[in-house]
Every structure is written in structure tokens, then in C-alpha cells.
Amino acid sequence: YSQEVYRKFFFAEMFSEEVQSELAIVERYVLPSKRVAIHLRGGDIIYGKTRLVANFGRLKSLSVPLADVLCQRFLDKGYTVLVFGATSRDLKYLSDKYQDVLTVDDLDCNDGSPHIRMIREVALMSDCELLISSGDSAVTKLAELVGRAKLLTVPGWISIEEEHQILLESVGMFGLRHLDPLQQAYANYCLFATAPETENFGVLGEYVRLASDCDPDSVAYALLAFFGALAAGEYSLASNYRARLEKVAGKSTHVFIENAIEDNRFIRFDDPSTIRILKHVTELTDVDQCFRNEASALLHLYRPEVRKGHGLGIRSGLKRVVMRLIRLFR
Question: Is-above-0.70 flag for pTM?
Fold first, then answer.
């Protein structure tokens, strides 16, 4: 079905008059026709409680350094950029830095209840030429269905190699200290997850140690830092991060991993860098057999033929509805 068929269906069958009125909000603004929306989705994943026990990889959020470079790229092509889906501080950083980057606060449409604000954001995103999203997001998919925007997801649009270079470029030019520590943690994790296969274990370990140091309450970063230090042969550091993990988790690392596997805990360990360090740990002969067994258990969990059953579940009610309708009518 065409985009217009989807749009008519959603307007006719799903949206009340109040919602339809809010979706028409774009008519109140005089905006350049050549505009792109970038949805960072950084609030809940990077700053919320979910991050303490979960790691969603690169599929759920755009780091601010990556969004920064993307803003510059689109501005250079003559676009006006609208940014959404992160904390006010992160979005304000981008809009303050670039004259033609706008937030909902800049447009003075951030009043009303949370669900009304979300509808307005959907409306503004939907009426852009392009919509850049971190990945799997019901809000951006809905925006694509009800408007003219063409949705591009970063993992499908930018290769891992290019993302790594963008991050290195951004960190090299601007550093990370101007960012919130939790955003610094996520940026360092992304540097780790996108690192080339030739990167040495010392550098990989440093990325995840920096992530854990910036966000010491995150079990996921501490666990990665533990295995990264083991892979690099830095056993004293490994002991420190294992102790941090166990202090935060309130249980032994072995039990934590067992529980994560049993409960389908939302920890992604299928990025290439993690696969490399876990495989390397299983081959080490001078570390505790227990450590090798833990690495092996995580590797088994995320083998391509079995990891489907342990992937990230869809929790949002809106997301379930949108995805069900997409499957039904496509």
C-alpha cells in the first residue's frame, strides 16, 4: 500500500478529532520546506532507570556526538534541522550550537499534556522531507505513516565503520566533557561497539571502562568493562570492574549472568567488539575457568541461530499497536 493509503487509514480509524487537530499543528508554523527531523531517542535509554540493567546497543539511541555531525552534514546541504527525542539539555546544546537547528521549545509548542506533546512532535516529524531515527521506534514509524517524511534508520543508513569515524571526528573536534556524564558513557560505548575488527583489546577495554566510569551505576557497562579488561590482560582492572558490577547488582557476576539469560534480560552482546572480547576470553588459559564459562554462556546466548528468542521485546502499548497494524496492512 502507498503512504497515502496508510495515512488515510490512520486518520480515519485511529485518531480522534483532538488528535487530528494536534497533527495539523504544522500548519501553524512557517518553516522552510527543505527540512529534516533527527530523532535521538536519548531520554529513557540513556538517562532512565532502564539503562541500569539493560544495554540496547546502537539500535535505540543516537549519541549526541553522532547527532552533532549529522546536523552539520544536513545544514551544509541547505536543510533546516528539527531535533527530537532527547533531554532538553541535549537538544538545547544542538540548537544553541547551530542557528538552523530547532527544537520544540524553539517552536513554542511544548505545552499541554505529555501525550499531546508527543502528538505534536509526531506531526512536526511527519512533515519533514527526511526523518532520521536511531532505529526501532514506534513514534518515528507513526510519523512516517501519517506524513510525507521518508524514514531512514541510522543502523541501516550509516555503516558501523562510518559511524565509528564520525564519532572519532566529533570527539576529536569537540571532546565529550561538555556533555552530561551519562551521554559521555553512551558515546564511549558506541565507540566500542563500532570499533574496527583490527582494533586492539587495550583500546576496546578503555572505551568500555570510560563508559562505566561515566555511569558507574550501569551493570551493563561494568560487565563489558570486566570482560574488556580480561581480554586486554589487565586482570587487576578486571577485578575492580567485576567488584563494581556485583556491588551495583547486589549479586555475584555468575548469578547475574544466569538470571539475565533465564529472564531474557535486555542486554545486547551481539555487536562485533563484544563478540571479539568474549571469544578471546574463552581462549585464555591464565584466567579462572569460571570467567571463561561466563563468556562462553553469553556467546552461546547470542549465536545467530539462537539469539532471536532472546532479543529485545516490544513493551510499549503504542508500539505493539503500530507494529501489528503494519504487519496486517502491508
Answer: yes
